[in-house]
Amino acid sequence: MSVNLATMLREGTKKSHTMAENVGFVKCFLKGVVEKNSYRTLVANLYFVYSAMEEEMEKLRHHELVSKIYFPQLHRKQSLEKDLSFYYGANWRNEVAPSQAAQAYVARIHEVAQNQPELLAAHSYTRYLGDLSGGQILKKIAQRAMNLGENGGTAFYEFETISDEKAFKNEYRQALNELPIDQATAEKIVDEANAAFGMNMKMFMELEGNLIKAIGIMVFNTLTRRRSKGSTELAAAEQ
């Protein structure tokens, strides 16, 4: 039995998607205000999240359900390692540690992998499809805001083995729709995707303190004051 999981995920996470984009750190980012220390902390946190997710999906690559959405070309761990080396130097492994929010996120990924592997579809969808959808926009913002140019620091957004991102997203959605699940399981996956958005939001919110110190409370308030109805600047990059 199959359900239209891709549509359920897109429709069922719209509110969470909008809420995530309206977190102060993200709103500042989308407006081109990126503070390097906050950003490199985010990269470190994402490294631990993706390491956990890719470790578990690798273990479960022959699982009846997980195997259908196992796409190694999406993996971000090595790309994040390149970025961490860029921001922290060769000794980066001794410089980084997951924040409290990242630790909770990682723990949840390991928990669902052990007890409800089908819910990994929610975490995979939330991170990877978002990366593919908005990655190029965010890459350009980061390059301009931190004066990076093409010298490095944005490997996370580069999918070197995916030549056509739009076509790949369609392939990924088709894989979601072909998962051998019933309606009840699909609804649990949507619930988990909303929880994943919440975990991402907590990581973003942790970064606001450093950002405010760097740019000043008045500038931060100006950048984040208006709350738009619906999605923000990244809306065009629909998952």
Automatic annotation (TrEMBL):
It comes from the Bacteria. It is an enzyme of class 1 (oxidoreductase). SUPFAM superfamilies: Heme oxygenase-like. Keywords: Heme, Iron, Metal-binding, Oxidoreductase, Photosynthesis. InterPro entries: Haem_Oase (IPR002051), Haem_Oase-like (IPR016053), Haem_Oase-like_multi-hlx (IPR016084). CDD domains: HemeO. Heme b binds at R10, H17, Y125, R173. Belongs to the heme oxygenase family. GO terms for biological process: heme catabolic process; heme oxidation; photosynthesis; response to oxidative stress. The keyword Iron applies. Its EC number is 1.14.14.18. It catalyses: heme b + 3 reduced [NADPH--hemoprotein reductase] + 3 O2 = biliverdin IXalpha + CO + Fe(2+) + 3 oxidized [NADPH--hemoprotein reductase] + 3 H2O + H(+). This is heme oxygenase (biliverdin-producing). One of its GO terms (molecular function) is metal ion binding. PANTHER family: HEME OXYGENASE (PTHR10720). It comes from Crocosphaera chwakensis CCY0110.
